[in-house]
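Quick illustration, no need to memorize.
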Amino acid sequence: MTDPKNVAIGDAAELVEQLRGLAGADPADVRQVVTEVLAALDRAAGGTLREQLPETIRASLDSAAAARP
């Protein structure tokens, strides 16, 4: 049987590679894409996702929300 932790690690690595492909090699672009995805997920979850995230990520979401028209 496959260890769920190994599956999660593999899934996370695959997601990172997909994000790199979407945003290019520039880490700032990747960070921006991740922030936008997390902000969209937080909005879809009615703001409850934010409570589960580390403070530094919440601050990025707040900055992204302030910049949105």
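The chain has a mean pLDDT of 79.
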